[in-house]
Design goal:
It contains eleven helices and 16 strands. It is an alpha/beta fold. It has a seven-stranded parallel sheet, with helices on both faces. A three-stranded antiparallel sheet has the order 7-6-8, with no helix packed on it. The longest helix has 21 residues.
Amino acid sequence: MRVLVTGGAGFIGSHVVDALLAHGLDVTVLDNLSPAAHSTEPDYLREDDARYHVTDIRDADAVNEALTGCDGVAHLASMVGLGVDLADLPGYVSNNDGGTATLLEGMRRTGFTGPMALASSMVVYGEGHYRCPEHGLVRPQPRSPEALDAGRFEPPCPTCGADLEPEAIPEGSPLEPRNVYAATKLHQEHLCEAWARETGESLFVFRYHNVYGPRMPRNTPYAGVASIFRSALADGRAPQVYEDGGQIRDFVHVRDVAAATITPFLEPSAPTGAYNVASGTPHTIGEMAFALAAAFGNDSPPPVVTGDYRLGDVRHVFASVERSREVLGLRAEVGFEEGMRAFAEAPLRLPPEGGRG
């Protein structure tokens, strides 16, 4: 089997390439090596083992060429992160939605048949799963600037205003993206689902939770929180923890994410659908910050809980891994403590100044 990996030079994509090659599969990579993401060509590229097409996923002719001979697609090319402001909106829509549409049209045009793995994200859920003592499962409203300014970070029950208990969120939960990036990730899912219905081919949607590990970009506001904290520590600065640090997330190592993503190409008859990709052991952002600082060394400045916030952030979202374990047999191999110790020493990718990593 030959698998096309879009975004295969990036943080997660490059680990997917490594995992596919380790299982003896042929690999083609499509990545634009954007100057906004890479200061130089990454030294971890497998140019002796895989075919690389350095081009934009929105270039239809280049996509058609890259698809030649492929009977599997892992689609990871994406503009990532929450975004800085609404000026980023055209870029997210063009890269994520437009790029996905171009890829799917290329698959139709070239007569592609085979499984597709889509890298989606937990952000499609919006706020996580919450239970009210009186009203059961509820969907809290977006948190207001007034509540956040006052330090009221926990979303209340939308019916009675009572405190809520967060729970692990399963794949069948309502999807409610609450920022531009999240909206484009959900649209990617919808586009790929339309392709699967039209063609009858297999689609696996992997909703990654908070991925961390080597090759993350350093010093960019578009990176994940683990990279932002690790970058601060590398620069001798204290990690700045927003809100009160009590936000619950599931931090999953990139090696486990790559192992999950290649499942469709090792077991093409596996049941299709959406799957959470997570460790199954949630932690607060504050816990992660302090664990990483401790692993980084005794001379590192301790994290600072700032009380600041980003309006597009959600309070708690962490995964139910029941479906991914029972149906696909996925289990995270890298534990939280082990992963944080390794991440404290992991090499990060330095993007250009002002780049998006």
